[in-house]
Amino acid sequence: MAEPILSTRDVVVDYAGFHALDGVSLDVREGTVHAIIGPNGAGKTTFFNALSGFARATQGSIRFTGIEIGGLDPAAIARMGMVRSFQISSIFPHLTVLDNVKIALQARTSLSRRLVASPKTTAVLDDPARAALAGVGLVDELDGPAANLPYGKKRSLELAIALSQDPRVLLLDEPTAGMGIEDIDRTVELIKAIAPGRTIVLVEHNLRVVADLCDRVTVMQRGKVLVEGSYDEVRSDERVVNAYLGGGHA
Q: Rounded to two decimals, what is the model's pTM?
């Protein structure tokens, strides 16, 4: 079997002596959608932070495409092809939808060294930015302020920003958090549409979303991997039932 595109071994993250992650090991296969689930406080977001360089692993190994990335900063990891979204909206609300994506694209070019780049200079980024927005269904909103987008479409804009980086691995942190049913369904269909040819790892509380999207599920509890398998395998595991129904919240 081919080497996983993303692999961790015995990853520990300490905060003032507290093990937020306590020896986490898992493999993510290329071309799959892999969910990380678990009760609040299980360590899911800390794990994402460690993968993406926003938290430093105290111990253990994190390998992406076979290369050790533990200790690299977030920008270096993103340049290697692993890009993440966040639970909290991280767009520029007073810029246009199009300009939000162009800024992300600009960061990958020599224009990133300029404090201010003229619209004429950045016009070369218009077409790829429009393509990224078309991929998430935002072509009709590209000239309006990002602040005017409804919440679900703001999350779609964040996804377009991430996709504009052409990632090999896309880390989605709670992509449906705070959404109503209509926006959840729209986001699920959007993730299905962008999944072919990509590897997606997502943290998600909505188990219906997990069941609909994911090839593999890792359940975490108290900073450790509790169980891993298909959705049907993990949902019938007594340890998972106990974790979600009160048998040991982190």
A: 0.86
